[in-house]
Amino acid sequence: MPPERRSRARPDRSAGARLDRKSRKKPDRRAAAGPGGPPRKAAPSSQRKPPARPSAAAAAIAVAAEEERRLRQRNRLALEEDKPAVERCLEELVFGDVEDDEDALLRRLQGSRVQAQEDSDDSEAEKEPKDNFLFQKKPVWVDEEDEDDEMVDMMNNRFRKDMMKNTGESQLSKDKLQKRLKEEFQHAMGGVPAWAETNKQKTSLDDESEEDEDDLLQRTGNFISTSTSLPKGILKIKNCQHANAERPTTARISSVQFHPRAQVVMVAALDNAVSLFQVDGRTNPKIQSIYLEKFPIYKACFSANGEEVLATSIHSKVLYVYDMLAGKLIPVHQVRGLKEKLVRSFEVSPDGSFLLINGVAGYLHLLSMKTKELIGSMKINGRVAASTFSSDSKKVYASSGDGEVYVWDVNSRKCLNRFVDEGSLYGLSIATSRNGQYVACGSNCGVVNIYNQDSCLQETNPKPVKAIMNLVTGVTSLTFNPTTEILAIASEEMKEAVRLVHLPSCTVFSNFPVIKKKTISLVHTMDFSPRSGYFALGNEKGKALLYRWVLFICFKRQKYL
């Protein structure tokens, strides 16, 4: 075969391989069929025509595009040389490395636009896999410590140990611990606080308050005014978590008292236990519980220095003394010189020197606080209803069942004065203020008479400064706060029968208690914290209710005592 025909019969396969398969022409079957006859067979491969080569115009267009791309690349490199290194690094972080191909940047931008469009489609588009996105951004920097699921030890921390639900939670991850803390906070607050609600809509009142605050920040001056006394009328008070929430009980709370030097509250009940709690207003974690077998507690009290706890029972003549520093429980079975068969009600002097026991048949027994030995006795007519020390521990005030009040001198144990409580048939309670100004006497008819201490010492028939008549049943509890600005009165014979009296105006705060809620029930004991920041109540349901005062200083900015 001649060389010309041989080259024509065998086309250049390398050239055909460079062309796309789609550009190859398929045989025309219709043309292969003869007129009215069956289709003809395809010609052998040796007789087929070679594919057409690309035209000169297409080659020229490709060369021009390549030349244009090179020109753009040269211009961009020239501009890059003039830019500082910081700007080039910033562009690489934002747009990526596009030195080799600028079309990659266009594809990435198109991909992000397609992704944003697909996010706004219907639910059908949301079901599509995320792999359909042309581009997904990657984080610039990743911290390896964030990826490690670090475990937190729950056993070696007493606050975290109380949050364990079972023994298997000795270790928790940070996410689970954060969730547990959130649950504890919401439980302590009674739900999600208003300031933490993200979907809360602003009202017109909130807008006005914000405008007032903006106006406040635009001016200078002394906006905070000092006050020498607590304002009367409405008392801003906040309901906190129960003081004994970590040790609940159904027995009646017989005593609740704050520690004189620490942020601790003591709760004693008829279930034979005295418990100490740390006061924080949120969880009030339990510190310790002392159990006294067959000893339903009638009254428990701290010593003046806070190092001891004294407790008496309903049907036992033993006086228990718990040494908090040594952790020892010391029973006092019998007081030398004291013939009383039953010791129940007692008082501790403010200076910590004396212990006063209310006996039977009108006797008052004065004991040494250090040795628990009898110093002397004082007698009044009738039975002893209640007694208390003066603020300087030099005098004793005693209320009798005949409605009379006796004033005794501690050192000489002589009666200094005796007067009839105005309008009282028989007394139930008595209290003195810390500043030595007032004496409050509660009677069976629900009347609380507030006297001046000087008049009680000098006059035989003193007139009360004010008679509080907001209770209709016998007043069984009276307590002044340490600053002598509030007098708490309560009756254990009627539910919600507790009032807070403002001093020196002697008017009752109108917003306490909230009668509609009815959460207080029957009050058996109450006390103020040493700085008057907290107020505690003990009821018959075994709950030690805890409240906290709130003062409004400027506009709506709050500060706790």
From TrEMBL:
Compartments, record wording: Nucleus, Nucleolus
Major site of localization recorded for this protein: nucleus
Compositionally biased intervals (Low complexity): 39-61
Listed GO biological process terms: rRNA processing
Presence of keyword tRNA-binding: no
Assembly and binders: Part of the small subunit (SSU) processome, composed of more than 70 proteins and the RNA chaperone small nucleolar RNA (snoRNA) U3.
Similarity remark: Belongs to the WD repeat UTP18 family.
Purpose: Part of the small subunit (SSU) processome, first precursor of the small eukaryotic ribosomal subunit. During the assembly of the SSU processome in the nucleolus, many ribosome biogenesis factors, an RNA chaperone and ribosomal proteins associate with the nascent pre-rRNA and work in concert to generate RNA folding, modifications, rearrangements and cleavage as well as targeted degradation of pre-ribosomal RNA by the RNA exosome. Involved in nucleolar processing of pre-18S ribosomal RNA.
Protein name: U3 small nucleolar RNA-associated protein 18 homolog
The organism of origin for this protein: Canis lupus familiaris
Gene: UTP18
